[in-house]
Amino acid sequence: MKKIVVLMSTYNGEEYIKDQIESILSQTYNNLELIVRDDGSTDSTKKILESYSLKGDLSWYSGENIKPALSFINLVKKAPRADYYAFSDQDDVWDSDKIEIALDFLDKKQTNIPILYCSTTRLVDKKLNVIRQSSKNNYRLTFGESLVQIPSPGCTYVFNNKARELLHYQQLRDVYMHDALLYKLVIGLGEVIFDKTPHISYRQHENNVVGNERSIYKKNYKRFKRFFFTNEPNKKHIMACQIKSTYGHLFIGENFDSLEIFVGYRRSFIKRLRLAFNKDIKSASKVTNVFLIILSILGKL
Questions:
Q1: Residue 293 CB: number of other CB atoms within 10 A?
Q2: Which residues touch 290 (CB under 8 Å, ≥6 apart)?
Q3: Do residue 67 and residue 157 come from a single domain?
Q4: Which residues pair with 32 in a beta bridge?
Q5: Which residue spans traverse the membrane (predicted)?
Q6: Please, how many CA atoms are within 13 Å of residue 294, restricted to the half-sphere of its CB?
């Protein structure tokens, strides 16, 4: 039976963490190990983790507060060898068959390339009342698309050891989200499986590090303000630059071309137009694509 290691990063998660740990321990797939890194909690999270550790349900360690992305990458680097790995947030609730279903998909694939499974989510409020299911947009699942849009959050990810190695062998800096980085690397260098059926209750509350904006109007208004009225660096472009500098030698063909176009588009007006009207570097959302064209031409993407 293949082994899976679940990696969870915690920070002041006392309110919801028991629900998530119990949902992981209740999985129908039982060759599973849960490892937790606490990112400097000041509430009772560590006491909760220790209580589960004493029962043999998980192992955990703590460190300084380095934020979720680097905390998860630290977990990846310290994790023991396994067949598969999964990311877990501290405040969601997994369906009992989440891991089993993911492995059914993954086991059908070849193992000599990076493979990542992800899915849609069931959005719930803090009391687990269903809000709605996340979007089932017709994602093309291409590397070019991943440069501007990720279809699913990291809390749904299950991936093989080849994918894990991509985060393991390099010293990473300026990573704003570990899951976005892993998704882009795997879609560019291996294969992504996208399951349109949700197997996780993705809890939305006031303390989410990354949530799911309920209103498309609010989401695009925030995007408009961020890009047109602030000088905040674009995180997608920063990550693409890092991917090129750290992993660029691994990319070939169209994926390398897309990376080059995205990273170097600010060098001239012609290059901006080339990005703006590139057929592969596009979102699944028509509204988002309008923003992409405008921002590319303005050099603010």
A1: 17
A2: none
A3: yes
A4: 4
A5: none
A6: 10
What's the length of the chain? 301
pLDDT digits over 106-124, tens only?
999 978 999 999 999 999 9
Q: What is the dihedral of CA 178, 151, 80, 113, to 10 degrees?
A: -110
- We report the CATH number of the domain holding residue 178 as 3.90.550.10
What is the structure's pLDDT at 213? 46
Q: Which residue among 203, 235, 270 closes a domain?
A: 203
pTM higher than 0.90, yes or no? Answer: yes
Q: What distance in Å separates the CA atoms of residue 291 and residue 32, rounded to the nearest whole number?
A: 43
Does one domain contain both 115 and 251? Answer: no
Is residue 192 helix, strand or coil?
strand
Contact criterion met (CB below 8 Å) for 260 and 252: no
Give the confidence band of 225 by pLDDT, cuts at 50, 70, 90: low
Residues 245 and 96 in one domain: no
What average pLDDT score do residues 44-65 get?
98
